[in-house]
């Protein structure tokens, strides 16, 4: 079976080819009872192709507009004049004019869409548009004008498909071909029954089948509808994106869906541009428009090229934009309609279980055909032997119809439609639980794949640490000073009095964060590192607003993971230009040739002094402090053309910032190691800081290797191959180093790699990894878009929790498959053997439909939604290419099948004598006992299936209310079916002795399971190097 699955039903979790998706669907063929339901969570290639076609059309239109704009600008610069285009008349409503608006929303959209700089200038440029949308730059949108703006200019929301109602799921469940055939059989049975047996006896068989079908459809539709609601809730969470705006004169965060025309938006590296708009001001703003235009070359946006399009990404720089167009008036709004066409990619486990269902379905189809032929041939032979072959009546027709119904019902039971759908159910359950545990799963396959992760490459800042930073040490004027908050405020100020002014300037001027004062409360909007520096500056008595007003910023280079520094160029009020720089200690120190002394004077930086400062940096780092150097340079040469210099700086201070390790991280790392998952720290920080934190977290061990990014990237492939298994810490790394490490781990070492990231430049590594995990708090929107999972609390413990749930999904599906295959084997064999030997099937159509519901929808609900237990993280991960149906599973399936077939076979052929049944109803009582015993065997086998290896199958059972609920409902309905619905289910009420017998026969399957689990089976699970496998088998209870 595994070779067949490997050949036709294997796809990659990510980066799969369209051909692979087509191949497995082709391999499924016609062995599908309900295509609408089975392939609901599988992408439609035709719809996808249509979506891609629409997307390319819109991208081409945008690309043409951009080229036309470039050509027009070139023509104007060459001294030409733009041709006059036909002017479209736009008429504003009276309400809009009354509120002070003087430009139509469609006209605004047209200006941005066509990049029409001439029309923009005719309106007075960006500042003219500000007036026309009734906004003051420093104040932003007034809250009182929000309703009117929404009425006039629209909402920043996109057209979405309406949710499917419950009745749609009912209709979809009714598309099952076998159920349709059974409905036809039921109607014919009612017609023939009324003609032969009259009212109401003639109705019972047919109505019984129809009621069973109604119950199956209802339960299926409820289960599918609940799944749909869970996915809808998760989808809503995925779309929660917040952006910083100025409203009512204050900088604040709002959802992108609450943006209005006129909003002043603050853009930073990694942000998605949330609406169409115009550039107001900013520094080195570089926009990636590839998602809209398809062009890979980023675009510089400035005063002369001020157009910003929704859906594009900020690759570098920062800026303010005026929102001019929102929602479906933007090109991105039109593009959004095409992005979801065709559904989400299927997961590898879904595809594999489609393969299992196909194999079993073919076997079941063959058994059904043979069963029908055997029953029919036996019936014809008996009629021939009785010389009644030419004597046919409606009773004969009903008998043959019942045979056909039994054959069709065998197909219903044999084709395990629920297998691939159980994966979706389990994933939906896990994703919902993970959402509550602060992990948002963006792609279904990620939750599944995370269960196989053998390596986690994690960031340090914010993931292993709290990201709540505070300055605890500073070296300035050749002194190291401990900073202990307000209690050391005066001491610190007196120690650095000579350099205080220049220190406050570098802190308050060289920042992209802001200090907000509201009703006497001071808060800081910005990154944790910058917030720590600003808090330190405020502690020293600095006035952020006064200093920012005093100096004019000419140019800014925001921090990114490649430069590892942030620089700013300012105009001094007394004339002259000054550059400030802060960043990675060794990089900024290397740019300095002077240093501030204890008197605040600049003196030459000797090699000896540079070595001393390096020792200070290392001593700070060895205390697990994040170190930054702060420097400045006065520029007297006016010919530099506003370029920020890269050398000649004067070092002001070395700052040590404490970022404590998160509570629980060390335990989470130990959990990973016990689970056979290697944890590697990849950070841009100083190597000594990284090593100190790694040791505190338990990541760096005595035989582990800590390496710097430059050393790693300069290695040959052979050296990399030799050193990668020992790497536990990589410091001063670039995003490219992380990408190279991940690629080697996946391709060379066949590891299943999970990677955390938060920056824009982490996107390639997140995309390359088997599972990309973006940080929800510190992560940029670009990183989140490239990730498979968003860790909402930025906590490493949450990453481990995702792995735990991923393993739970995998093992839960294995449990369900084991349970379902056992039911399949027993139901097929008992009906087939009985038909061949006695010419009758002991399980009727109604009974088989009930059994099908027990093993399909209810079985999936019980076994596929069990929460994870701690034992899951005490075994090695499932490696690539491991068989899904393991030898222990086959052992359990075969053992239970033999027991159940033996019990049911004895009852079927010798039950009358053994039970001492006499009288006209003996056969009916026996058939009811067989049906009842069969159901109770499945009830207790469902409990057996809770653990494939361990004997103690009750551990955690009473914590799973879903499992207990399914058990109670199954037993309760079975009692009703036998005792009260006999006319429809072909059963008769049983005595308490027979009920006890059925329960005992089912209960015996539990000691049988214990015996079966004691049978040793060869294990071929590949364990990681150095991993000592935990004991298994009966000894581990």
UniProtKB/TrEMBL annotation:
Protein family: Belongs to the cation transport ATPase (P-type) (TC 3.A.3) family. Type IIB subfamily.
Catalytic activity: Ca(2+)(in) + ATP + H2O = Ca(2+)(out) + ADP + phosphate + H(+)
CDD domains: P-type_ATPase_Ca_PMCA-like
Protein name (record): Calcium-transporting ATPase
Xref: Pfam families: CaATP_NAI, Cation_ATPase, Cation_ATPase_C, Cation_ATPase_N, E1-E2_ATPase, Hydrolase_3
Enzymatic class: translocase
Transmembrane segments: 166-190, 202-222, 359-381, 401-430, 961-986, 992-1012
InterPro entries cross-referenced by the UniProt entry: ATPase_P-typ_cation-transptr_C, ATPase_P-typ_cation-transptr_N, ATPase_P-typ_cyto_dom_N, ATPase_P-typ_P_site, ATPase_P-typ_TM_dom_sf, ATPase_P-typ_transduc_dom_A_sf, ATPase_P-type_domA, Ca_ATPase_N_dom
GO MF annotation, one: ATP binding
Alphabetical keyword list: ATP-binding, Calcium, Calcium transport, Calmodulin-binding, Hydrolase, Ion transport, Magnesium, Membrane, Metal-binding, Nucleotide-binding, Translocase, Transmembrane, Transmembrane helix, Transport
Source organism of the structure: Rosa chinensis (China rose)
Residues in Cation-transporting P-type ATPase N-terminal domain copies: 125-194
Catalytic activity, EC: 7.2.2.10
General function of this protein: Catalyzes the hydrolysis of ATP coupled with the transport of calcium.
Ranges for region Disordered: 1-23
Organism placement in taxonomy: Eukaryota, Viridiplantae, Streptophyta, Embryophyta, Tracheophyta
Subcellular location: Membrane
Membrane topology: Multi-pass membrane protein
Primary site of residence: membrane
Any one of the GO CC terms: plasma membrane
Composition skew (Basic and acidic residues), residue ranges: 1-19
């Amino acid at each position: 079976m595994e070779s067949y699955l490997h050949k036709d039903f294997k796809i990659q979790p990510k980066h799969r080819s369209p051909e692979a998706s087509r191949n497995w669907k082709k391999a499924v063929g016609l062995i599908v009872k309900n295509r609408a339901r089975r392939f609901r969570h599988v992408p439609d290639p035709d719809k996808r192709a249509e979506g891609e076609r629409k997307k390319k059309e819109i991208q081409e239109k945008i690309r043409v507009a951009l080229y036309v704009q470039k050509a027009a600008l070139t023509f104007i610069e060459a001294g030409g004049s733009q041709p006059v285009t036909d002017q479209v008349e736009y008429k504003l409503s009276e309400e809009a004019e009354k509120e002070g608006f003087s430009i139509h929303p469609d006209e605004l959209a047209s200006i941005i869409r066509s990049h029409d700089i001439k029309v923009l200038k005719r309106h007075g440029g960006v500042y003219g548009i500000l007036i026309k949308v009734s906004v003051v730059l420093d104040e932003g949108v007034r809250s009182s004008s929000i309703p009117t703006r929404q009425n006039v200019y629209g909402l920043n929301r996109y057209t979405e498909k309406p949710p499917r109602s419950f009745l749609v799921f009912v209709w979809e469940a009714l598309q099952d071909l076998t159920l349709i055939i059974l409905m036809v059989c039921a109607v014919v049975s009612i017609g023939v029954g009324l003609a032969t047996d009259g009212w109401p006896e003639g109705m019972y068989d047919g109505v019984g089948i129809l009621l069973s079908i109604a119950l199956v459809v209802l339960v299926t539709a409820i289960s599918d509808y609940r799944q749909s609601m869970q996915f809808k809730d998760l989808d809503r969470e995925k779309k929660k994106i917040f952006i910083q705006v100025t409203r009512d004169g204050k900088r604040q965060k709002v959802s992108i869906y609450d943006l209005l025309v006129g909003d002043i938006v603050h853009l930073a590296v990694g942000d998605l541009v949330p609406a169409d708009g115009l550039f107001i001001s900013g520094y080195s703003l570089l926009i990636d428009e590839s998602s809209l235009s398809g062009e890979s070359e980023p675009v510089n946006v400035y005063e002369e090229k001020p157009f910003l399009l929704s859906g594009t990404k900020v690759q570098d720089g920062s800026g303010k934009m005026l929102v001019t167009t929102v929602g479906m008036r933007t090109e991105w709004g039109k593009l959004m309609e095409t992005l979801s066409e065709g559904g989400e990619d299927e997961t590898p486990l879904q595809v594999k279980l489609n393969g299992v269902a196909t194999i079993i379905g073919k076997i079941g189809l063959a058994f059904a055909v043979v069963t029908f032929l055997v029953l029919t041939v036996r019936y014809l032979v008996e009629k021939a032997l009785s010389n009644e072959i030419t004597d046919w009546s409606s009773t004969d027709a009903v008998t043959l119809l019942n045979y056909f119904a039994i054959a069709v019902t065998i197909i219903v039971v044999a084709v395990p439609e629920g297998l691939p759908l159980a994966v979706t159910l389990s994933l939906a359950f896990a994703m919902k639980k993970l959402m509550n545990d602060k992990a948002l799963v963006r792609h279904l396959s990620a939750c599944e794949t995370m269960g196989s992760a053998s390596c986690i490459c994690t960031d340090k800042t914010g993931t292993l640490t709290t990201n709540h930073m505070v300055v605890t040490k500073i070296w300035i004027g050749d002194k190291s000073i401990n900073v202990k908050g307000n209690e050391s405020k005066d001491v610190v100020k007196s120690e650095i009095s000579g350099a205080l002014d220049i220190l406050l300037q570098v802190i308050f001027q060289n920042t992209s964060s802001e200090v907000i004062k509201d009703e006497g409360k001071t808060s800081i909007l910005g990154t944790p590192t910058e917030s720590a520096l600003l808090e330190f500056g405020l502690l020293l008595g600095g006035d952020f607003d006064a200093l920012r007003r005093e100096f004019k910023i000419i140019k800014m280079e925001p921090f990114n993971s490649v430069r590892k520094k942030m620089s700013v160029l300012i105009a001094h009020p007394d004339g002259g230009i000054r550059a400030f720089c802060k960043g990675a200690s060794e990089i900024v120190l290397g740019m300095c040739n002077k240093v501030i002394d204890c008197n605040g004077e600049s003196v030459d930086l000797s090699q000896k002094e540079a070595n001393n400062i390096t020792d200070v940096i290392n001593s700070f780092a060895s205390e697990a402090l994040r170190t930054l150097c702060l420097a400045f340079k006065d520029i007297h040469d006016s010919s530099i053309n506003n370029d920020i210099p890269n050398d000649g700086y004067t070092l002001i201070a070395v700052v040590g910032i404490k970022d404590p390790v998160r509570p629980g991280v060390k335990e989470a790392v130990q959990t990973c190691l016990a689970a056979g998952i290697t944890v590697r720290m990849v950070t841009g920080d100083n190597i000594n800081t990284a090593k100190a934190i790694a040791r505190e977290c338990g990541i760096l061990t005595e035989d582990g290797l800590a390496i710097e990014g430059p050393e790693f990237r300069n290695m040959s492939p052979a050296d990399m191959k030799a050193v990668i298994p020992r790497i536990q810490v990589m410091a001063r790394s670039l995003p490219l180093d992380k990408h190279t490490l991940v690629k080697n781990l996946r391709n060379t070492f066949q590891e299943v790699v999970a990677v955390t990231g938060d920056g824009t430049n982490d996107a390639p590594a997140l995309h390359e990894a088997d599972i990309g995990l973006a940080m929800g708090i510190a992560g940029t929107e670009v990183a989140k878009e490239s990730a498979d999972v968003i860790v909402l609390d930025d906590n490493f413990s949450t990453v481990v929790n995702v792995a735990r749930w991923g393993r739970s999904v995998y093992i839960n599906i294995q449990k369900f498959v084991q349970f379902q295959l056992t039911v399949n084997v027993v139901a097929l064999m008992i009906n087939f053997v009985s038909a061949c030997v006695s010419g009758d099937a002991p399980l009727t159509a109604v009974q088989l439909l009930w059994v099908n519901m027990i093993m399909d929808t209810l079985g999936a609900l019980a076994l596929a939604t069990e929460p994870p237990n701690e034992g899951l993280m005490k075994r090695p991960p499932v490696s690539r290419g491991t068989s899904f149906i393991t030898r222990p599973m086959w052992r359990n399936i075969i053992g239970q099948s033999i027991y159940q077939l033996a019990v049911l076979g004895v009852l079927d052929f010798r039950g009358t004598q053994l039970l001492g049944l006499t009288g006209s109803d003996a056969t009916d009582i026996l058939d009811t006992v067989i049906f009842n015993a069969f159901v109770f065997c499945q009830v207790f086998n469902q409990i057996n299936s809770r653990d494939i290896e361990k004997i103690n199958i009750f551990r955690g059972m009473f914590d799973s209310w879903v499992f207990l609920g399914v058990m109670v409902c199954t037993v309760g309905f079975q009692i009703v079916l036998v005792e009260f619905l006999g006319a429809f289910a072909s059963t008769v009420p049983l005595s308490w002795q027979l009920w006890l017998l059925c329960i005992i026969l089912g209960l015996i399957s539990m000691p049988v399971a214990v015996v079966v689990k004691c049978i040793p089976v060869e294990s071929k699970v590949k364990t990681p190097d150095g991993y000592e496998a935990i004991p298994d088998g009966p000894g581990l209870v």
